[in-house]
Amino acid sequence: MYASREDIGYDFGDDSKVGTKPVKPNPNIDGGWAWMIVFSSFLVHILIMGSQMALGILNMEWLEEFNQSRGLTAWVSSLSMGITLIVGPFIGLFIGMCGCRRTAIMGGMLNSLGWILSAYASDVHYLFFTFGVTAGIGSGMVYLPAVVMVGQYFQKRRALAQGLSTTGTGFGAFLMTALMKYLCIEFGWRNTMFIQGAISLNLCVCGALMRPLSPKDIVSEKYVLRSNSEGNHAKALSHSAETLKSRGVLSEELGKKETANEEMLDSVQHIETGSKSQSERSLYGLSILKTVSQMMVTVRKGFAIWYSSYFGAASLFTNRVFVAFIIWALFAYSSFVIPFIHLPEIVKQYNLPSQNNIFPLTSIIAIVHIFGKVILGIISDLPCISTWNVFLMANFTLVTCILTLPLMQTYVSLAVVCALIGFSSGYFSLMPVVTEDLVGTKHLANAYGIIICANGISALFGPPFAGWIYDITHKYDFSFYISGLLYMVGIIFLFIQPCIKKKQTREKPAEGAEV
Q1: Is 327 in contact with 450 (CB distance < 8 Å)?
Q2: What is each CA distance from 372 to 198, 424, 473, in whole angstroms?
Q3: The overall pTM is greater than 0.85
Q4: Cα 146 to Cα 40: distance, rounded to the nearest angstrom
Q5: Cα-only R_g, the chain
Q6: Around Cβ 367, how many Cβ atoms within 10 Å?
Q7: How do residues 453-511 score in pLDDT, each as one tens digit?
Q8: Which chain regions cross the lipid bilayer (predicted)?
Q9: Could you give the CA distance from residue 68 to residue 62 in angstroms, rounded to a whole number?
Q10: What does the alpha-carbon distance between residue 254 and residue 308 come to, in Å, rounded to a whole number?
Q11: Domains plus CATH for the chain?
Q12: What is the C-alpha to C-alpha distance for residues 151 and 35, in angstroms, rounded to an integer?
């Protein structure tokens, strides 16, 4: 197994511009303002993920209000949760052009607009567009920057920082469920959505806290990483050279485009300087032209970087381990969501409603899930522990619990399995860390956007697929078995690809010796 980016996957970072002289580390990296970033991300998880996990309250109100089938009404919540994650790759484009702060602020306003418009819904189909699509896209525009910013501000304690920030999901599930239940009783579901829209405006405040790192800070961060991993970096030197060479053509093209754009800006500035004697109207028009030109430069540069990450010579998809990670993500999230949906029915089948009402099994998963994220994050940050190995062990534990859960027929046994599910699913806090180890900080936004997009597809189609299996077999057992087996396939991909890469790395020196 492998513990670093150089060993797990390919190093996409370009360190050619990093000097050899030591640079004083920024105090805001792993400390200072970095903890404000964690706090901002924590609030984002409460307001977005917590609210989505509490949609069961509103779903009951929609069923009573619109008298539609449960399947059709459930698509409102599925669309909101799925689109939040599916739009990840496109949000990466926004981050490249506008930065995390502006993207999050715009997303907060769009999310709030979706909640408010949904308060005036006349039917379920209206909610598909206002809540499922509008609020879902807004949530995605805030969620991805919240994760990326934590990855940028932390290096030594990334796993712990991500674990602390993502615990907002568990806290949000409790807080938002109680809040929505109270608001629906006191004011009705329409006013509840209107109030929730006002609360969601706090996402703009969270976005404002996402202060970007200056170029000097990024250079400092790169030097620290380089000095800490200088020995391991030699292992991937040959591949890094190939990667940099493949990106040479793209860099030259970008350089030519930037030179042309700079010449155009210089000409605009020259015209603006020479037109001082003209009227204020002409100066105003030139300033607008200059602003538009600068925006065009930013958009073209951001799009070029985004395009190269997905389709260029140095595409993320050339990293085989990262591709295996995507395949794993397609099956992983549904295995975590399905127990939340079907556990109440399983409890009813086994005649355990009285015990479950005292302490619901889903609450056990949610509570232990909070501690699992923090504990797994602390373990992963230990110097002698590999984050990759912790991630795989947690996945093996979770898939084992998913496959054995239908075999448990008492409340105590179900509670134990649910506690293990909640703890092992804490690996979600390690996903950004593993992604950054695979592709580097520079490509984290685009790479993690792809991963959460795969998770979104899993969340969107996983639960309906499980319901379809139940309609055919009239048993919930097969839903767990099939989802667990598909999940196991994804884990096997994660296990095989690093082994293949390790074997290829060992064979290359041998071939060179023979020559």
Answers
A1: no
A2: 32, 6, 34
A3: no
A4: 7
A5: 25
A6: 17
A7: 888 887 777 766 766 776 677 776 777 788 888 888 888 888 776 555 554 444 444 44
A8: 33-55, 75-96, 127-148, 160-180, 321-343, 358-376, 388-408, 414-435, 447-466, 478-496
A9: 8
A10: 11
A11: 26-215 (1.20.1250.20), 315-506 (1.20.1250.20)
A12: 12
